[in-house]
Design goal:
Chains A, B: InterPro entries: PurM-like_C_sf, PurM-like_N, PurM-like_N_sf, ThiL-like. The structure is a homodimer. Chain A is α+β, with helices and mostly antiparallel strands. The first copy, chain A, contains 9 helices and 13 strands. Chain A folds into 2 domains: 3-136, 60s Ribosomal Protein L30, Chain: A (2-Layer Sandwich); 144-311, Phosphoribosyl-aminoimidazole Synthetase, Chain A, domain 2 (Alpha-Beta Complex). In chain A, the strands form 3 sheets. In chain A, strands 8-10-7-11-9-12-13 form a 7-stranded mixed sheet. In chain A, strands 3-6-4-5 form a 4-stranded mixed sheet. In chain A, strands 1-2 form a two-stranded antiparallel sheet. In chain A, a hairpin with a 6-residue loop joins β1 (21-23) and β2 (30-32). The relative contact order of chain A is 0.16.
Chain lengths: 323, 323
């Protein structure tokens, strides 16, 4: 089957429309007229086989996740999705796989109101890159550098389930399938927090924000550095009751604080905004507070607290190329 | 070396500025304010190892080409480059390779006035995806569907050198290195025809246009189909004098008409525009003419002419997944 007809057949089902789109897939470029007065929020993320997903995961979930992790970046700025493009490298033209992948991608695209306007399908090891664009009012983006000393630190929902799901996928022989299902679902079907991000941005309720892709310990540290503050995080919020019962407390910390792939938002706000945010988004939890660097401190960082006392936590992180 | 510092170190040298860029690399999204009244032309292309380039090619050339093939899509619409993002999958953190890749990418970015505003660096088989955006006046894009019967068919420069270069790279033992150099350079350093594309679009001199990535036979057929016309191409323009002397005429046709990777433009215009275009761009050649479908013809197609007579040409094309 020729590349052109492959693209035509499956991606044309994904497309959809966005305002201002004059020309979609099929020419050298798409043509799009941006709306007056808005800024574009732009992000690009790649998923590779055996790095970001496993061969055993359904193609439908890979299509979902490839778009979801990108939408999550838009959510973290408070932007409204508008268009995306998709680069798909496939080792062979497996039509069944492609159909399912496109179905997963298209369902989330429709649900989040984003149009696929272009892309590329090439032969190569399985790899997916998505570019997303979102709209936002100038000055309203939730930047990492916007946290203030005194801000509460919040997360959009509990953490660690995706990391548990990955463990279960990697150890199929010792996994209770029924118990594993919801955790694997968290891993394979992350839910980008678009509504929350837009709420925080539009009402100016949130200050700094990012999405948790690499784990809280590593991601929250980005906010600390960009905003030059210290994050005091209270470990009592991470008992891990929602995680499998066989985890030790240390393992539960590891999953929640250093496990990746949650794609929840971590954000800061003034305490006066909390009640209004939680009325709209009851899953939102406070996990700590930002403070100024003390006079003897040089480096912005995270402080883990137990009963008000700073404790040392040994967390294993994950970084590409960190061999 | 951690992913973050890798990106910081090399990609930050590539960046540069574009008008309206409020926030570049380093947050969940870049933030960019599009200029009022312009359209965006958007394209995304992937290069994979052993499909689009060979391991023996210098990293500098791969960086150049990854951006060049995308800029070529902007050229084909007549758009002016504004920003790009880069997704780079690397099997390991080879700093020397990365430094050279970024140098090749950055040099072309600077030369063409495009800013790198974001991207992703991941672990995986070597693969590069670039998204580009260009600006264009509404209604001025050189679409494939704009060719008219009676239009002259032009190419921006002679063809086939890149395909010869690929042959030479694949057969190093029988290749005369000195003779091969300019051909391999055409393959590894395509030169996106941005000025010509913008000229054709701004002065409304060009009608349909596309860039020749897969070969004239396959690409020009896209214009025929989109514009519902027949292309009469005169083979006398393809004697192949500029190609290696040991090629037969049939081999020279193959390289020029079905060889990929030239990244020249193929476009149509009214004959009255030709002289002005050639004054600015003396390499531009006429290769044929568009005509209406005859009453007995159903399908838009290309007709190869020799001394005014249609001839059958056997050309081998290349399409991904066409196993």
């Amino acid at each position: 089957m020729a590349e052109f007809s492959l693209i035509e057949k499956y991606l044309s089902r994904v497309t959809g429309q966005c305002e201002g789109l004059e020309l979609g897939i099929g020419d050298d470029c798409a043509l799009w007229q941006p709306p007056a007065g808005k800024q574009l929020a732009l992000s690009m993320d790649t998923l590779n086989l055996d790095v970001h997903f496993l061969a055993c995961s359904p193609a439908h979930s890979i299509g979902h996740k490839a778009l979801a992790v990108n939408l999550s970046d838009l959510a973290a700025m408070g932007a409204q999705p508008v268009w995306c493009s998709l680069a798909l490298s496939l080792p062979d033209a497996d039509e069944l796989w492609l159909a399912e992948f496109c179905r997963g991608f298209a369902e989330l695209a429709k649900q989040s109101g984003i149009a696929l306007i272009g892309g590329d399908t090439t032969s190569g090891p399985l790899s997916i890159t998505v570019q997303v664009a979102g709209l936002i009012e100038p000055g309203k983006a939730l930047r990492r550098s916007n946290a203030l000393a005194g801000d509460l630190i919040c997360i959009s929902d509990r953490l660690g389930e995706a990391a548990c799901g990955l463990d279960m996928l990697l150890k199929p022989l010792v996994t209770d399938i029924k118990q594993a299902k919801p955790f694997i679902k968290c891993l394979e079907y992350p839910n980008p927090q678009l509504q929350l991000g837009q709420y925080l941005s539009e009402r100016a309720a949130g200050h700094a924000c990012l999405d948790l892709s690499d784990g809280l310990a590593s991601d929250l540290a980005h906010i600390c550095r960009a905003s030059k503050v210290v994050a005091e995080v209270d470990l009592e919020h991470f008992s891990g009751e929602h995680l499998p019962k066989n985890l030790t407390q240390q393992q539960a910390y590891q999953k929640q604080l250093a496990g990746g792939d949650d794609y929840q938002l971590c954000f800061t706000l003034n305490a006066s905004e909390l009640a209004a945010v939680q009325r709209q988004f009851p899953q939102v939890q406070v996990i700590g507070k930002m403070r100024q660097l003390a006079s003897h401190e040089v480096t912005p960082h995270i402080e883990w607290l137990k009963n008000g006392q700073a404790v040392a936590l040994q967390l294993k992180g994950f970084e590409h190329f960190s061999k």
